[in-house]
Design brief:
heterodimer, A: 293 residues, mainly alpha, MetI-like fold, 2 domains, two-stranded antiparallel ribbon, 67% helix, B: 417 residues, alpha/beta, D-Maltodextrin-Binding Protein, domain 2, 17 helices
Chain lengths: 293, 417
């Protein structure tokens, strides 16, 4: 048996780190470009794009773009709206979709397989095809609030939250994960007299940390980063508007690119913080379920 | 008992206030455009303070998203009382039942530039406080350096002369491109800025006699001549193609990369700041049927579902005062809708640095086809000129475009013309 050569081992390690560092830098480039550009005046930003200076905080650096961006749009309001809508939607989605997945995985009822297939089939329907029918429905739905019964959900938080709570991908993720949990645990709990609700709350969900993190991250990214068409057609007041519609405030006839970068930097902070907080669980979940983001 | 009376009194007071100040809702396309919004907000405050019947409340939308929001609002039954509408889109919204006639007398709009009054089916549906105009922007020093004649409104460059100008500037090697037509500005810029070239050749997007067909005008001899000239611009590297990045469009002329830029009056202030007296705003070339530029900008109308058209009309009449028209012009460089407002304005007065744009609007402006089908025609035309710029066969592209426009008109039973 040949002895491990410490020199070779170190060299391999060094080359591995080198490759990983290069990959990391490539992935970081867009974020670095965004942040650095947000500090430059437009003429310098545009002049630097053809060189490595685009990634360096050099030249006429200031926070002017941030000041101008805050003047142009109520950024705090937009971020608050998006965070509020995202947090409520993701929380309710995790609860309802995991319950649905629990029923699909563990309970035996008529039509279970067919209904699960129908749920999965909704994955292939692009949202654009149902946007107008959905708009017509929500514009007439009743709501009970402080003003009594009113009709129409347009221009509200609820119209941005409720239609997005249930989704097939989240149900599918939970079903796949639940299927891999040891059946013996469920059966032992049932033999001990646990109700299905107790099995869900005390056995299954405590073991589902990784899939909860994965579903939470995917859903959060969808709600925070991709919600554009729906709020565009259902929300008319600035006070309910989310960040992605707010981005359009910066695309005037002559685009202030520095302000665009400042706005993007500001709205990226919450989602980046959220991802960093959950990244360990996310990576663990990807490793265990083989889901690709 | 005393408490009951007090409450009753308070309720009566609140009720009285509510009756005295009926809310008029208004949607506006300029969210993020602080200067424009500030003037509009000032006008609203003035109106609300000037009388006790109505209170206008404005919601702003980003321009890119505005038309989609209005269409969705119409479907969802949530349109406001007042809408602002882009001039060429107005006939579509009127035909679709989103707008109602303004109810203004002809005398009230007699002083307005024709392109700022939106008409459909013989009635006035919208009125604008400004227009936009396009010009060939260049530098006097550039033309003088290469011995190029400076054209005037009365004597614009002919088509052949314009081609020679471009060839001369290209041969100098001093510029990346002799001309920039703004291919980076996709969307409405294409029909607004490029269809006047087609019209100067003698063609058009659609036959304006009845608006029932594009065949023969878009793809006729004049249309083909335009298409070949247009394609040659790109084939000979006279202007950047569809791959132009927006940043170059914004700053290319200022940086000296382009000798001439085909651009709107809204950029005039920036150009004047950069080059001062050396700037020239020149008329469009005449390709045989007169120099043409596009016309029709944002205007104000009343939603068909408005329950308070009187209040909405009162506010629009309030907006039509010269002082607001002048304020928009002074702040944003927009072409004032009336001659009196122009005379009082900073840029369009007798010695104003942008006065030529008013003359251009008055003498060369041709509004885009006044048809509900224009929204489709615009997209079809945009695709056709982009395809031709990218080297597609001219005749095939124009034939396909004419067919598509005709099919859409037929599908919509002639759009009510």
């Amino acid at each position: 048996m040949a002895a491990i050569n410490p020199a070779n081992h170190g060299l391999r390690r060094l080359s591995r780190y080198l490759v990983l560092s290069v990959v990391a830098v490539v992935f970081l480039f867009p974020i670095v470009f965004m942040i650095v550009s947000s500090l430059k005046p437009d003429h310098q930003l545009l002049a630097d794009t053809g060189s490595l200076r685009a990634f360096l905080p050099v030249g006429d650096i200031s926070l002017d773009n941030y000041r101008a961006a805050f003047q142009r749009a109520p950024i705090g309001r937009f971020v608050f709206n998006s965070v509020l809508v995202t947090v409520i939607t993701v929380s309710l989605s995790l609860l309802l979709c995991s319950l649905a997945a629990f029923a699909f995985t563990y309970l035996h009822w008529f039509g279970r397989g067919l209904l699960f297939s129908v749920v999965l089939a909704t994955l292939i329907i692009p949202f654009e095809t149902i946007a107008i029918p959905l708009l017509l429905i929500v514009s007439k739905l009743p709501w009970i609030g402080v003003e009594g019964v009113t009709y129409g959900w347009l221009d509200s938080y609820r119209v941005q939250i409720i239609p997005w709570i249930a989704d097939a991908l989240t149900v599918f993720l939970f079903v796949q994960y639940f299927k891999d949990l040891p059946r013996e645990l469920i059966e032992a709990a049932r033999v001990e007299g646990a109700t299905w609700w107790q099995v869900y709350t005390r056995v299954v969900m405590p073991l589902s940390g990784p899939v909860i993190a994965t579903a939470a991250i995917l859903k959060t990214l969808k709600m925070y980063n991709e919600q554009y068409i729906w709020p565009l057609i259902t929300v008319q007041s600035e006070s309910y508007r989310p960040v992605m519609v707010g981005l359009q405030y910066f695309f005037q006839l002559q685009i202030a690119w520095g302000e665009v970068m400042a706005y993007l930097t500001l709205i990226t902070v919450p989602v980046l913080a959220f991802y960093l907080a959950l990244q360990r669980a996310f990576i663990a979940s990807i490793a265990s379920t083989g889901v690709k983001g | 008992m005393k408490l009951t009376l007090t409450l009753a009194g308070a309720l009566a007071l609140v009720s009285g206030v509510a009756q005295a100040q009926t809310e008029i809702s208004m949607w506006y396309h300029g969210a993020g455009n602080e200067e424009e919004a500030a003037i509009l907000k000032g006008a609203i405050e003035d109106f609300n303070a000037s009388q006790s019947d109505w209170t206008v409340v404005m919601q702003s939308f980003p321009q890119i998203a505005y038309n989609d929001s209005v269409v969705a609002g119409a479907l969802g039954g949530s349109l406001p009382d007042i809408l602002d509408v882009d001039g060429p889109v107005m006939p579509n919204w009127a035909w679709s039942g989103y707008l109602q006639p303004l109810g203004l007398d002809e005398a009230q709009v007699a002083a307005f530039l024709p392109s700022t009054v939106g008409r459909w089916d013989g009635q006035i549906y919208s009125v604008g406080l400004w227009d936009a105009a396009v010009a060939m922007m260049t530098r006097k020093s550039t033309l003088e350096k290469y011995g190029i004649r400076i054209p005037t409104l009365d004597q614009p460059w002919t088509g052949d002369e314009f081609d020679e100008v471009l060839a001369t500037l290209k041969a100098s090697g001093d510029f990346d491109y002799p001309l920039d037509v703004g291919m980076a500005w996709t969307g409405e810029w294409y029909p607004y800025a490029f269809s006047p070239f087609l019209q100067s050749f003698g063609g058009d997007i659609v036959d304006r006699d009845g608006y029932q067909s594009a065949d023969g005008v878009l793809n006729g001899d004049a249309g083909i001549a335009f298409g070949e000239w247009w394609q040659a611009l790109f084939a000979n590297d006279m202007t950047p193609g569809t791959g132009q990045d927006p940043a170059s469009r914004d700053t290319g002329f200022l940086d000296g990369k382009y000798a001439i830029t085909w651009n709107g009056n809204w950029t005039a202030a920036t150009v004047l700041d950069a080059f001062g007296d050396d700037v020239l705003f020149l008329p469009a070339p005449d390709f045989g049927h007169g120099p043409k530029i596009g016309a029709g900008s944002w205007q104000f109308g009343i939603a068909a579902t408005s329950e308070h058209p009187d209040g909405a009309r009162a506010f629009i009449e309030h907006l039509m005062q010269d002082r607001y028209i002048t304020a928009f012009s002074d702040t944003l460089g927009l072409v004032p809708a009336t001659a009196t407002a122009a005379a009082a304005s900073k840029h369009y007065g007798p010695d104003g640095d942008m006065a030529v744009f008013y003359d251009l609007s008055e003498q060369q402006a041709l509004i885009r086809p006044v048809s509900p089908g224009y929204v489709v025609m615009a997209k079809v035309f945009e695709k056709a000129v982009a395809d031709i710029a990218n080297g597609a066969d001219v005749i095939d592209s124009l034939d396909a475009a004419a067919d598509e426009i005709d099919a859409d008109i037929q599908k919509n039973d002639g759009y009510g013309h």
